[in-house]
UniProtKB/TrEMBL annotation:
This is YceI family protein. SUPFAM superfamilies: YceI-like. Belongs to the UPF0312 family. The lineage of its organism: Bacteria, Bacillati, Actinomycetota, Actinomycetes, Micromonosporales. Pfam families: YceI (PF04264). It comes from Paractinoplanes lichenicola. SMART domains: YceI. Residues 13-170 form the Lipid/polyisoprenoid-binding YceI-like domain.
Amino acid sequence: MTTPLRTTLRPGTYTLDPRRSTCRLDATHVFGLKPVAATVDLRGGTVTVAGDLAASTASAVLDAGTFHSDDERRDRDIIGKRFLDAEQHPAIAFRSTGCRREESGWLIDGILRVRGRDSEVTLRLSTAESTADGCHFVATATIDRVAAGVGTGRAIIARTVRLTLDMWAA
C-alpha cells in the first residue's frame, strides 16, 4: 500500500486557460539527426480534482491547425492531409480513463484522438499545485505517432514524439 500524495490541490472542477497554457512537441527528423520543437494551441478542457486524487479526471482539446515550428513549410505539411489533416480533423483530443500513483509520482492514463483515431497514452504528472486563482499542472508523455494514426514520413521523422503540457486552470 502506497501512502497518499500530500498535495495542496483543492478539490473541484477547473477550466483550462488556453491563453496561459502551452503544448510543446519535441521530435527528430532527417533520419533522427535534427531536433524539431513545435507548439500546438490549446482550445480548452477541464480538470476535476477529486478528494481521492485517484478519482480525478482530465480532458483537453488541441487545435490541430495551429502546429507551429521554426519552418513554415514544415508547418503547412504537418497541418496538411499527409500528417494531421487539420481540415478534416481539426481537433486533437485527450480524455483521462484513470489516475494512478506509482513510487515515482502520478500517472494519468487516457485516450488520445488524432485524425479520428484513438490510441492509449499515459501522462506523467510532474507538477500539480494550487495557485491563487486555480491550479497549475505540468505533464509529459511519449507518443507513438504511428499508433496515434500519423504514419506518414516513417523514413525521415522519428516514430516517437515527446509531449509536454504546461496547463493553467481556474
